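ingest -> validate -> predict -> emit
validate: passed (alphabet ok, no gaps, 533 aa)
predict: started
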Amino acid sequence: MQYFMIGIIFILALFAIHFSNKRGIPALLLFIVLGIVFGAVGIKFEDYEFSYNFSTFALMVIMFYGGFGTNWNMAKPVAKEAIILSSFGVVATALITGLFLHYVLGFKMLEGMLIGSIVGSTDYASVSNILRSKNLNLKYNTAPLLELESGSNDPTAYTMTMVFLALITGSDVSAPVMILFQIAFGIAMGFVLAYIIRKVIKWLPIEADGLYAVFMVSTMLITYSATDLIGGNGYLALYILGIYLGNTEFRGKRDIVFFFDGFTQIIQIGLFFILGLLSDFTKFLHAMPIAFVITVFMAVIARPATVYGLMLPFRLKINQLNIISLAGIRGAAAIAFAILAISGGTEFSIDIYHIVFGICVFSSLIQGSLMPPASKKWDMLDPSDTVLKTFNYYQNKAEIGFLETKIHPNSNLIGTKVKDLNLTFDFIVAKIVRNGKTVVPRGHITIEENDRIVLGGEVYFDEIGHDLIEFTIPKGHPWANKQVKELDLPHDRLIVMVQREGSDFIVPTGNTLLLEDDKVILLNSEHKSENSG
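emit:
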């Protein structure tokens, strides 16, 4: 019978997603409501330990795949703003909310600060769901900023929650030391394990389709557990791991993308349903008034004050600051941290779970529903683009790759029409970027100076890698400070790529100047002629 009910729940969840897309109500909120309804009709569920373990695992998946799906090239221009909001922004929002709870609503100081910390972060699943389901491509790189912020701010809220829990329980742990360990070990473990895992993937003897996803789930669990074991922030380590691997090409990546696309959806449905089922409807009704007041305060005062204050040096536009303030939606992480707070057996004078639960419900309902109309009203929508997909998205999901080239001055392609390019190979001109804007490459479009041309075609993946030689140019090497065309290379070798410290990969031409410490990648023919030596 229980499996029958699970099947019914997931089918209802699919209808909820469809209803969400039609009506503009956040889908994840509907999953919570679905859980509340099942609880109200007699299905009792009070297993906080299971709920905490499940929510922890769900957050691990959401954090890792949130990082994995982050296109760092798109996020880089707004990385400073996003990182400040995901760290100092969470701290400021939590403290402002905690002070309000103490001085206005009469909460005990530490309990007020604890609730402020629990709800201090915005929810990646909710923000991403709204942006993508409503196709809210926001101007000024606002969508990448919001996704990067919401994807990386849970570790800060988790650290603050742990600090105030330690203060409430009278733990001897020093708060500054705990914060330092959480952040330092989290960052270090994220990068170190990401580097190791990337190396392991190269020689991993996996042949069956789908097993790369199993390997990635295993590394995700190991990363979180190992980081948590030494006192670091496991969520932060996972997010860094996700960004590092997601922006790296490796065999099996498409399998991982397909798997996590579906797996993340299932996890989110299960998480929000369980959180709704765990709530007591009577207690939820009792907590609704105070939860509503806190939600309004955070949406109208705490979040905007934080956003406007911290973003002042970056001189963002007023309408952009407005939409960033509105997008401070609270969700699964907050409820999971509330379960963490009460699962330790500490007695509180308030019903933390249902207050936090109510805040998340009202935040998703009010702020989530207002995002689409507010984006239009504040003229924040860019109708010429889409937030749904990027070229990287399709490259990760199909046997297709994209190349970019710039039309330099005096190029013989200037003045040529797209239809006259006469591409000999099976390539297509997929996109033209001109003066920062996209030009659809119709046949009559003429190529101009400084255009950036994006070509699409079937991707090649080198399984073996024996054809490549990689070395770093040392001080005093004959190649240092010479152009590629000046080198006396054997006929069976070709420089195909140069990596320079502090910059991206360079596609070499004859005029490319090689410098000391450049990493040079050469193609080496396996079949040398008799005269090649």
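The chain is about 55% helix and 10% strand.
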